[in-house]
Amino acid sequence: MQFKLAVLPGDGIGPEITTEAVKVLKAIGSRFNHDFSLEYGLLGGVAIDKTGAALPGDTLKLCRDSDAVLLGAVGDPKWDNDPQARVRPEDGLLALRKGLGLFANLRPIKVFPVLVNAANLKPEVLRGVDFIFVRELTGGIYFGLPRKRWQTSRGWRAVDTMSYSEREIERIVRVGFELARARLQKLVSVDKANVLESSRLWRQVTTEVAKAYPDVELEHMFVDACAMRLIQNPAYFDVLVTSNMFGDILTDEASMLAGSLGMLPSASLAGVPREGAGIFGLYEPSHGSAPRRAGLNVANPLATILSIPMMLRYSLGLVREAQAVEDAVGEVLSEGYRTYDIMSEGKVKVGTREMGDLVAGKAGG
Ligand code: IPM
Ligand code: MG
Asked: What's the 89 CA to ligand 2 centre distance in angstroms?
């Protein structure tokens, strides 16, 4: 089959890890006879440098004309410490999510048994951890208005707005229920309904949507309690659904269960995911651009590589091919190869390129 993919390497380690994921994709293409035609676009700091815009119009169009998008990472410290910067690399990513209607961000947290010793938590806490976060991605405090900074007679003041409509809550919560239905029929909805009005609406709408899913057990959990439970008993969870900012924070926390943020893929979808269905989506690692590691051939490419099977499953309908990539990663880890971030005693340390070559070698059959 033929597929058209947009590739946006971005900043920092983005280009290096994307190169390795593309290697794996090509290996799958030749083994299963698919033609992945790749077109590259600019996003983030590199786009600002070359065009003045974090999301150039050409890039948005390229993505809209593709079956799916593969993204590296965006962000460069050049902009971070300038509160007055007019445009930032991250603006490009947010505009892309919004522009492509990618409201559902899936972040699976799965502990590879061979990596339990690489994590900071006790192996007995990590055993059996396998859950998925559904994070709302195009609303909430990331996009709410007003959002501004202004001078008053008593100094500066700033405001952000956490706002959700019934419709926005309903469609993301449905994604949670659908995933839960296909897994262990247990959904945790995370909010701060004891304090926030937007969370009270979230809870009300979620409870309403639950009526259409009598087979799924719904539990509401406050975000602070959830943050604690994720460390205390992470195996408790199966599917969690939450708002944009809570999801941003909780998924970084949860990443530590998998040993490293370098292991976590993500999918951002424009519809309800179903295995084998062709839903448009953007696939990227859950981590950032790690500028200090850029160009050193040390970054772990596995989060990006593991985003490929998510793309194969949700956007391209290639389930067997997806399994082949996941198996390849599992085998390489079982054989003892590790990048620096998941390294432990007695294992073989490899760089970004070597890890990509190893996985591509196995994925190619
Ligand atoms: C993420 C990142 C982004 C976010 C940044 C880079 C804008 O932290 O994907 O989790 O906050 O959504
Ligand atoms: Mg984040």
From this structure: 14
Helices (H), the chain: 14-32, 45-51, 57-64, 77-80, 89-99, 123-126, 166-182, 197-210, 223-232, 244-255, 302-305, 307-314, 319-334, 352-363
The pLDDT of residue 275 is 66
Number of domains the chain is built from: 2
Residue-range definition of the domain harbouring residue 68: 1-112+263-365
Kindly give the distance from the C-alpha atom of residue 323 to the centroid of ligand 1, in angstroms, as a whole number. 27
Indicate which ligand has the atom closest to the C-alpha of 243: 1
pTM: 0.95
- The whole-number average pLDDT for the span 237-247 is 98
Residues 252 and 347 in one domain: no
Q: Give the per-residue pLDDT at 276.
A: 63
Q: Is the CB of 248 under 6 A from ligand 1?
A: yes
Provide the CATH number for the domain around residue 154.
Answer: 3.40.718.10
pLDDT digits (tens, 9 = 90+) for 92-129: 999 999 999 999 999 999 988 888 888 889 999 999 99
For the question of residue 252 being annotated catalytic, the response is yes
Q: Which of 228, 258, 288 is the last residue of a domain?
A: 258
Residues 67-97: b if buried by 16+ CB within 10 A, e if exposed: bbbbbbbbbbeebeeeeeeeebbbbbbbbbb
238 catalytic residue (yes or no): no
